[in-house]
Amino acid sequence: MPNHVTTPAAPPPEALPGKLIAVEGLDGSGKSTQIHLLHQWLSGLGCKVFFSEWNSSEIVKEATRKGKKKQMLTPTTFSLIHATDFADRYERQILPMLKGGFLVLCDRYMFTSFARDGVRGCAPDWLRKLYGFARTPDITFYFRLPLEVALGSMLEGRPQLKYFEAGMDMDFSDDIQESFRIFQGRVMENYDEMLTEFGFTQVDATRPIPEQQEHVRDHIQQQIDLACYKQKAKK
């Protein structure tokens, strides 16, 4: 996979009153825990905040479930289904909330597709054009955890890995845990390549959860005037 991706120049995005914050990282990196804590904190401050999660659109959820269950999804189909999910949430939730002056928190964004679908063989240029309608977040936190630590976190206490989650559709290995390790390792390589391309804010996910959260909050307060997003008290 090339280290540098050239994409067509896009027009400057429309200035919106809201701010978009996303979290990315390997499965098991703790990103969902961190954005949940961030959501609680911002809500506690009285900020107007909205949360959106990857692969949660109602219009494609059932199709995705059936496709995965029957192992019918090709890499391109898999990517297009996730893009459809994202587009639906973006147009009906994320963008309206940004226009309404909300802080929008996303547990994974288009970068998840760039990382995972890229491993499945989808061309980086094609993926970036597919999501060309979407804004780049104002802040993207990349929770980086050593591969073996992330794998241990994912495998601990789990009854079994899922077929697509482990990259078994890629024929990396007949052993599902080895396939998972190879797949996640390549996903990490893609994230690392995007670090500079998209200006991720890297967080050491080996640090204690409270320390990570403190770092996230400090960075947001340095970049965003949270007073502008506090809801006005009702008279």
> Which fold name fills CATH's third level, the topology?
Rossmann fold
Number of strands: 5
The fraction of residues in strands falls at 5-15%
Backbone structural class: alpha/beta
CATH class: Alpha Beta
CATH superfamily: P-loop containing nucleotide triphosphate hydrolases
Low-confidence stretches: 1-11
* C-alpha Rg (nearest Å): 18 Å
CATH architecture: 3-Layer(aba) Sandwich
Shape, per Cα inertia axes: globular
The side-by-side strand order for the widest beta sheet comes to 2-3-1-4-5
Fold blueprint:
Layout: E1 19-25, H1 31-44, E2 49-53, H2 58-69, H3 75-99, E3 103-107, H4 110-119, H5 124-130, E4 139-144, H6 147-155, H7 176-197, E5 201-204, H8 209-223
Parallel strand pairs: 1-3, 1-4, 2-3, 4-5
Helix pairs in contact: 1-8, 2-3, 4-7
What can be said about this structure in brief?
With 235 residues, this protein is an alpha/beta fold.
